[in-house]
């Protein structure tokens, strides 16, 4: 199950957006700048935030959505308490990275890029984290877990609950 993305804009979020807009809306490249600062300050750019920024900047919502989907570092939903990054660099890919992704998706009930309903875990894919000799590698928060096996996925996750 995924976290609902139809959340309302909170007063705190609106205050942050207003501050960002006041300082940056007239600068060149304002859309990219405002979206980047929004993500930095609030952690993501929700549909409600996109709508508000579109209105306030008089930029079509489709343009804002286009920028957010073009650059993979933007997030449109809040991140979970723990971030799982399954490495799909070459070494990890050939040594079982894809089967780890499948197992995480199955155990957590989410797809890559999604967050569990209890907001505990966000599942993502990354490229080489510099630990190829331990492939396949998974990063959970700042922990690097090497030689990961699908049968150990559930057990490892229990440590982070
Ligand atoms: S390819 Fe995964 S750590 Fe290098």
**Any ligands, ions or cofactors bound here, and which?**
FE2/S2 (inorganic) cluster
Low-confidence sequence ranges: 1-5
Number of helices: 7
**Would you identify the CATH architecture of the largest domain?**
3-Layer(aba) Sandwich
Number of beta strands? 4
**Largest β sheet strand count, sense and barrel closure:** 4 strands, mixed
Order of helices and strands: HHHHEHHEEEH
CATH class of the largest domain: Alpha Beta
Query: What oligomeric state best describes the polypeptide chains here?
Result: single chain
Rg, rounded, reads 18 Å
Q: What structural category characterises the helix and strand content?
A: alpha+beta
Q: What proportion of the residues is helical, as a percent range?
A: 40-55%
CATH level-3 fold name of the largest domain: Glutaredoxin
Topology:
Layout: H1 11-24, H2 30-42, H3 47-57, H4 61-70, E1 82-87, H5 90-94, H6 97-108, E2 121-126, E3 138-140, E4 143-145, H7 153-158
Parallel strand pairs: 1-2
Antiparallel strand pairs: 1-3, 3-4
Helix pairs in contact: 1-2, 1-3
This protein binds FE2/S2 (inorganic) cluster.
FE2/S2 (inorganic) cluster is lined by residues 87, 89-92, 128-129, 131-132, 135, 137.
């Amino acid at each position: 199950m995924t976290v609902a993305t139809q959340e309302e804009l909170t007063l705190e979020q609106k205050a942050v957006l207003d501050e960002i807009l006041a300082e940056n809306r007239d600068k060149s490249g304002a859309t990219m700048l405002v979206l980047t600062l929004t993500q930095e300050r609030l952690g993501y750019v929700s549909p409600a935030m996109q709508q508000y920024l579109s209105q306030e900047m008089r930029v079509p919502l489709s343009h804002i959505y286009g920028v957010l989907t073009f650059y993979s570092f933007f997030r449109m939903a809040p991140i979970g308490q723990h971030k799982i990054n399954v490495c799909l660099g070459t070494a990890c890919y050939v040594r079982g990275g894809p089967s780890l992704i499948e197992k995480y998706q199955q155990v957590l009930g989410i797809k890559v890029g999604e967050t569990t309903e209890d907001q505990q875990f966000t599942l993502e894919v990354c490229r080489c984290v510099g630990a190829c000799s331990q492939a396949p590698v998974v990063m959970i928060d700042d922990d690097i877990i090497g030689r990961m096996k699908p049968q150990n996925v559930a057990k490892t996750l229990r440590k982070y609950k």
